[in-house]
Specification:
Homing endonuclease LAGLIDADG domain-containing protein, endonuclease activity, plastid, 5 helices, 15% strand, Homing_endonucl, LAGLIDADG_dom
Amino acid sequence: MIKNDKKLNLTEIEVAWLSGLFEGEGSFGIDNRSAKRYINSVAPAAPFIKIAMTDEDVIAKVAKLLNKSHLSPTRKTVTNKTVFICHIGDRQTLLYLLPRMLPYMGKRRQKQIQMSIFLLNKWKIWKNKRN
């Protein structure tokens, strides 16, 4: 697994490329499991983005640009193709990436990204209060 200790410095073209790819093939979500799993959990929900496709070269490029790893679960498509996945859930990467992607996205994705940014900022406040 690649450690995310290097700062991202994407070009505008790279951000636009990622945005187009995630607009069409990605998924944007909110992970609420912590609050449901632990009675005393006060951590805010955690946004994430994920992309899965059978084109390993494309997923590898996403992973490289975002300093992430990619994986291939054991499941195959109905046509027996291997699926490759890149999951981005760390808040620092999302805080960097999502505001830059926002202007390139359609209205539905913009709403999802705005909610994610809201939750990320809520997390920053929560984290600062705990320090």
